[in-house]
Design a protein that fits this description.
This is Stimulator of FtsZ polymerization and component of cell-division Z-ring. With 83 residues, this protein is α+β, with helices and mostly antiparallel strands. Helices cover 59% and strands 17% of the residues. It has one domain (6-78). A two-stranded antiparallel sheet has the order 1-2. The mean pLDDT is 93.
Length: 83
């Protein structure tokens, strides 16, 4: 992956944002799709939730998932592999 910064227009929950980063367009599209799917799921499960509350729940879930992955990686490094 190159380190060239790119601008990407992402439409999340009907609002367009310009994201600057070095990820590929396909990566950014995938992230946008997942965000919209998860926001729709949150709204379906809790229709009274405001956009701000839904965004906080989405961020909380994303960080929780990230922590789970980091813990699994740390555990894998501690566990000796059998050859």
């Amino acid at each position: 992956m190159d380190n060239q910064k790119r601008r990407f227009k992402a439409t999340v929950d009907g609002k367009t944002y310009t994201i600057v980063g070095n990820r590929s367009e396909s990566h950014m599209k995938a992230v946008t799709e997942i965000m919209n799917e998860q926001l729709a799921q949150i709204k379906k499960l809790a229709p009274q939730t405001s956009k701000e509350e839904a965004a906080i729940l989405l961020a909380f879930n994303a960080i929780s998932d990230q922590l789970d992955v980091a813990e699994k990686e740390a555990q894998a490094k501690k566990t000796p592999t059998s050859e």
